[in-house]
Write a sequence for this structure.
């Protein structure tokens, strides 16, 4: 059974009397442990696809099966639980809570699944350590560099032991050197605990870290190929 | 699963981040709760005072005053003619079925001497019924007996103030006091009664048999004359019946013709006092209601700030939703925030209200009672306001679409 299975997914937005087909019958399967880059220009539908994969959005048509469960029939709260347990999000703009220390940001997902305060703190520290931010636990986001903030976001994505990390332009706000560090971190996480990593990007350099590249254009998949590592 | 302690922590943090805003929002509740407590304290203080006066006066009371007489078309003022007598009193007791008891009163003021002490006080000639009518007990000794009244004996009952002034700590029972140079034997001491509705010290009085007052102390124009008659009806419902019966009886006894006005007036004291009590109750309610409006306005202030807060933190809400916050996690976060504001405001408001009451009371000398009921109600109401006015913003926040919320700048 595939971890992620998209069955002819369509997403139609109504803008006044014009219907925009952001996704037009997308079918794709992603197995556990894959490292996938989703590429395409802006407006190609890659972000919409990402939102559907992350259970932030529901398709207008078609079925999205996550771990064999059809997400189409699930309630808002059930989707929230899936996001909490199975998906770690990493965003371009980091999306950390401001005026909130790194450790508290990392503890956030555990607030919503009943982990005890002691356990939360322990796991958050571990997660921060695993992304190389030991000793920065009490820094607020504005005291951290962009790369460090993204590491905090990654630690937050890891802390609930989610099997999938969805990263939407994770290096978009970072310089080249830091981008390399962040991508290497993803590669490591994909290799060691075997987390399935899916990255949306428009930068070919970033896509080279992935093992598979899916290209989007106008709501369709135009290519889907395994990348051989040199 | 909703984690209340953590949600509470999140809410407290949000409030701490915007200290000034939180404080100002709370101020609305502080003033509201404080105003409710202070206003109700003033109102219930007034009610309590009136209730005390009513109970010290005795219940279900009527008084008969000598009335305006008309002689040859000239109407004389009220009380100009001594028209009431002890026999009127006896007739009222005997013939009016709605009357429980009645006592005649003939009073005056006189100097009283004991040894080298002297004191000027009110001397009231009456009968043993007086104590019954006024619900007044003796703290020592005995009351008048029939012989005292029939024989115009020189015995007296002392009010507590008189005892304090003439005897100090000594036991006055059996002692002799001189009223207008006549020796009277003290046979009893009245229980302490305190101030009357008019602010008079009711304990500053001496009771003597009405006949003694008529014959030996205050000379009267005709035998048996009394100044007023004080009457206790059997029950509050009997008051109007008693009033009618007394009117009819006295008209008959005074030989008044069909066209003649009453030469006496019957007043319903209890009714007058109850009207006063009713009006203070209304005043208390009114003050409380006005103060509640300010509490309500404070609640609207909370809602306003919470709505701003939800808009400001749209992105935060988006992040929380993306990482797994459920509908009620978000709702509770904002409701607890509003509740915290209103409850802290409530506690500070209670402190403010009690201090304001104490200041008001010491500046104006008004009697005030900080009622626990008002405190609990105001506090409970502020909590309710927190939840009520916090709910809509919280509801609004929980309905946000996570994608839109995440993109919100």
């Amino acid at each position: 059974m595939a971890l992620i299975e998209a069955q002819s997914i369509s997403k139609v937005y109504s803008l006044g009397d014009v219907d925009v087909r952001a996704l037009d019958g997308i079918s794709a399967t992603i197995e556990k442990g894959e490292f996938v880059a989703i590429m395409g220009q802006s407006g190609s539908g890659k972000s919409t696809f990402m939102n559907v994969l992350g259970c932030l959005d529901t398709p207008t048509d078609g079925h999205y099966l996550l771990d064999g469960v059809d997400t189409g029939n699930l309630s808002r709260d059930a989707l929230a639980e899936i996001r909490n347990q199975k998906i770690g999000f990493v965003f371009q703009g980091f999306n950390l809570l401001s005026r909130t220390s790194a450790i508290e940001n990392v503890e956030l997902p555990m607030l919503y699944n009943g982990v005890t305060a002691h356990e939360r703190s322990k796991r958050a520290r571990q997660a921060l350590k695993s992304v190389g931010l030991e000793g920065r636990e009490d820094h607020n986001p504005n005291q951290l560099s962009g790369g460090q903030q993204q590491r905090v976001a990654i630690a937050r994505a890891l802390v609930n032991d989610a099997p999938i990390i969805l990263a939407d332009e994770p290096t978009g706000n970072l310089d080249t050197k830091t981008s390399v560090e962040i991508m290497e971190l993803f590669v490591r996480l994909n290799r060691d605990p075997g987390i399935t990593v899916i990255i949306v990007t428009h930068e070919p350099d970033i896509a080279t870290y992935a093992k598979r590249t899916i290209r989007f254009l106008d709501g369709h998949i135009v290519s889907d190929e395994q990348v051989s590592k040199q | 699963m909703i984690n209340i302690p953590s949600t509470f922590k999140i809410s407290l943090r949000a409030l701490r981040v915007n200290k000034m805003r939180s404080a100002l929002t709370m101020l609305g509740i502080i003033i509201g709760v404080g105003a409710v407590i202070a206003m109700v304290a003033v109102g219930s203080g007034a009610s309590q005072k009136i209730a005390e006066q009513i109970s010290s006066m005795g219940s279900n009371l009527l008084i008969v005053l000598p009335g305006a007489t008309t002689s040859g078309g000239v109407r004389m003022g009220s009380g100009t003619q001594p028209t009431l007598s002890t026999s009127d009193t006896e007739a009222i007791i005997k013939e009016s079925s709605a009357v429980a008891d009645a006592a005649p009163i003939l009073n005056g003021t006189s100097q009283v001497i004991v040894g080298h002490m002297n004191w000027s006080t009110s001397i009231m000639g009456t009968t043993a019924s007086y104590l019954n009518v006024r619900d007044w007990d003796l703290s020592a000794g005995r009351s008048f007996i029939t012989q005292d009244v029939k024989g115009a004996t020189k015995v007296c009952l002392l009010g507590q103030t008189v005892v304090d002034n003439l005897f100090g700590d000594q036991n006055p029972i059996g002692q002799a006091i001189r009223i207008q140079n006549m020796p009277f034997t003290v046979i009893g001491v009245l229980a302490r009664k305190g101030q009357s509705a008019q602010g008079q010290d009711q304990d500053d009085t001496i009771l003597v048999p009405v006949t003694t007052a008529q014959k030996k102390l205050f000379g009267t124009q005709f035998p048996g004359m009394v100044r007023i008659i004080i009457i206790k009806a059997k029950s509050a419902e009997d008051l109007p019946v008693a009033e009618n019966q007394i009117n009819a009886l006295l008209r008959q006894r005074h030989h008044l013709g069909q066209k003649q006005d009453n030469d006496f007036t019957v007043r319903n004291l209890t009714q007058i006092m109850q009207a006063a009590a009713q009006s203070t109750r209304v005043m208390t309610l009114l003050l409380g209601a006005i103060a509640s409006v300010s509490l309500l306005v404070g609640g609207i202030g909370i809602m306003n700030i919470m709505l701003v807060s939800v808009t400001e933190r749209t992105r935060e809400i988006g992040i929380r939703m993306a990482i797994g916050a459920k509908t009620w996690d978000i709702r509770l976060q904002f409701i607890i925030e509003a509740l915290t504001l209103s409850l802290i405001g409530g506690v500070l408001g209670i402190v403010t209200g009690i201090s304001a009451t104490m200041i008001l009371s010491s500046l104006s000398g008004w009697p005030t009672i900080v009622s626990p009921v008002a405190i609990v109600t105001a506090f409970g109401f502020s909590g309710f306001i927190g939840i009520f006015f916090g709910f809509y913003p919280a509801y609004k926040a929980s309905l946000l679409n996570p994608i839109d919320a995440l993109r919100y700048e």
Notes: Chain A touches chain B at residues 51, 54, 56-57, 76-77, 80-81, 83-85, 89, 91, 95-97, 99-100, 108-109, 111-114, 117, 156, 160 (CB under 8 Å). The radius of gyration of chain A is 17 Å. The longest helix of chain A spans residues 176-191. Chain A has one domain: 4-226.
